[in-house]
Amino acid sequence: MCRLLLSLFLIIFIGSCKNRAKDQQTTDLGYSESEELYIAKPFTQNSQFTNGIEGPAVDSNGILYVVNFENEGTIGQVNQGGVASLFIDLPEGSTGNGIRFDSKGNMLIADYTGHNILKVNMESKAISVHAHNGQMNQPNDIAIMNNDILFASDPDWKNSTGQLWRIDADGSTHLLEKNMGTTNGVEVSPDNRKLYVNESVQRKVWVYDLSEKGDISNKRLLIQFDDFGMDGMRSDINGNLYITRHGKGTVVKVSPEGEILLEIAVSGKKPSNIAFGGNDGKTAFVTLQDNGNIDYFRIDAPGREF
Predict the structure, then answer these.
(1) CA separation (Å) from 246 to 98, 137, 220, 286?
(2) CB under 8 Å to 253, separation ≥6 — which residues?
(3) I need a surface site. Which of 38, 73, 266, 276 has the fewest CB within 10 A?
(4) Contact between 173 and 163 (Cβ < 8 Å)
(5) What are phi and psi of 3, to 5 degrees?
């Protein structure tokens, strides 16, 4: 009898340990870094974010931040196990879009309804206006140089036009170009010498030479697509661009010379933005507007900002 009870105890104890280990693995890491490259899978549950899901950006602790968690005007956070929760509510009248982090670790948010770039102190969660300009249509996506100079796309969706802004580290705003197409995704090259801007409706990606002070010159066409739209884009450390194809349900990898290298299918048809993170910077996170969730896939080189 004693042996039987001891055997039952050991079976229950071992099973309990296995379950705890499994739960801990799921909580600490929602993906394996040895997974096959370029195979997208869901990272968070569907419908946790609104159809305005955008962002995303990863901080130095590996936490992923995405706008519009459960309600518009919020910022959500997602741990490495894919568990999402509320980080902050934005001030009334503000709605976030693109997110980036500066060299001091502050979160910068394109607030398209408030015509602002907001700054969040990550320790106190205090929110301030880093930059404001009433001439902005709706600051959409943002990209940042190593010296904290920021660039913001500024589309006018109604008229299929757009602008491009530079925001210096002191918060001053400078209109770099107007009368563009519908400006959306924006990114800086790994060496900080090129600026990429895409136009969603026109399906064009432009590249500029970029000075240390954030001046642009020598505009030329990098690539133009024949169908579907574009939204966010980010660069890996080799200068390859990963561009979300809104409506097509893919992310396309484009070389610095404008050559299509491959295309990755995601679980929804409306991918909006993309960011890189994980322990090695080789995990791509893609926000999906039709699913209200985030997909991930592994890539072969770290993201530029990792």
Answers:
(1) 16, 21, 23, 11
(2) 240, 241, 242, 260, 261, 262, 263, 264
(3) 38
(4) no
(5) -65, -40
Cβ contacts of 85 within 8 Å, gap of 6 or more: 69, 76, 77, 78
Q: Which amino acid is at 262?
A: L
Query: pLDDT digit of tens for each residue in the chain (306 aa)?
Result: 444 443 434 333 334 433 333 333 333 336 777 889 999 999 999 999 999 999 999 999 999 999 999 999 999 999 999 999 999 999 999 999 999 999 999 999 999 999 999 999 999 999 999 999 999 999 999 999 999 999 999 999 999 999 999 999 999 999 999 999 999 999 999 999 999 999 999 999 999 999 999 999 999 999 999 999 999 999 999 999 999 999 999 999 999 999 999 999 999 999 999 999 999 999 999 999 999 999 999 999 999 987
DSSP state of 25: H
Residues 6+ apart with CB under 8 A from 133: 115, 165, 173
Output the six-digit token pair for 182: 């519908």
Distance CA 248, CA 56 (A): 20
In what helix (H) or strand (E) does residue 21 lie, and over which residues does it extend?
A: helix 2-28
How far apart, in whole angstroms, are the C-alpha atoms of residue 100 and residue 108?
5
291 conformational bin, left if phi > 0, alpha if psi -120 to 50, beta if neither = alpha
